Amino acid sequence: EESNGPIDCYAAISQADRLQSEPESIRKWREEQKERLEQLDANSRKQEAEWKEKAIKELEEWYARQDEKLEKTKASNRAAEEAFVNDAEEVFPGTEWERVAQLCDFNPKSSKQAKDVSRMRSVLISLKQAPLVR
C-alpha cells in the first residue's frame, strides 16, 4: 500500500498546528536561516569550483615543467654520452689511469653519491701507485 503523505493521518495535522502556533519571530528566523544556509552552500560550491580550476591549472603547469626538465636531461645525457664515446675512441698506451681518473671522483667531499665508495677509491689509488705486474 503506497501513500503520498505521512502514514499517520494526524501527523500532517499536528505539523500544520505546530506551524500555525509558531510565533512570527521564530518563523522569520527559520526562513532567514534557510536563506543563509542556501547562500553558504552556493558560496562553498563556487569556491570548490574555483579550487578545482586552480588545481587543474597548477597540475598542467607542473606537467609542462616536468616535460621541459625531462627534455633538458635527455639532451645533456645525449651530449655526455657522445663525449664519452668520442673519448673512448681515443685510446693511447699509458693514458689508462688518466681515463680512470676522469671517470672516478677521487674527492670524497664533492661526491654526491649516497653510497660509500671509499673502499673502491682506496683500491684504485693503490693500484695507480703500485700497478699489478703480469
UniProtKB/TrEMBL annotation:
Report the PROSITE patterns cross-referenced here.
CLATHRIN_LIGHT_CHN_2 (PS00581)
Q: Which GO terms describe its molecular function?
A: clathrin heavy chain binding; structural molecule activity
InterPro entries, A to Z? Clathrin_L-chain
Q: Name one GO cellular component term.
A: clathrin coat of coated pit
- The lineage's top-level taxon is Eukaryota
Keyword Amino-acid biosynthesis in record:
no
Q: Which UniProt keywords apply?
A: Coated pit, Coiled coil, Cytoplasmic vesicle, Membrane
One Pfam family from the record: Clathrin_lg_ch
Membrane-topology annotation of the record: Peripheral membrane protein
Q: How far does the signal peptide extend, from start to end residue?
A: none
GO annotation terms (biological process): clathrin-dependent endocytosis; intracellular protein transport
The subcellular location is: Cytoplasmic vesicle membrane; Membrane, Coated pit
Answer whether the UniProt record assigns the keyword NADP to this protein. no
Q: Give the residues annotated as coiled coil.
A: 30-83
What is the protein's known function?
Answer: Clathrin is the major protein of the polyhedral coat of coated pits and vesicles.
Q: Provide the family line.
A: Belongs to the clathrin light chain family.
Q: What is this protein called?
A: Clathrin light chain
* Annotated source species: Tachuris rubrigastra
Read off the lineage from the record.
Eukaryota, Metazoa, Chordata, Craniata, Vertebrata
Name of the gene: Clta
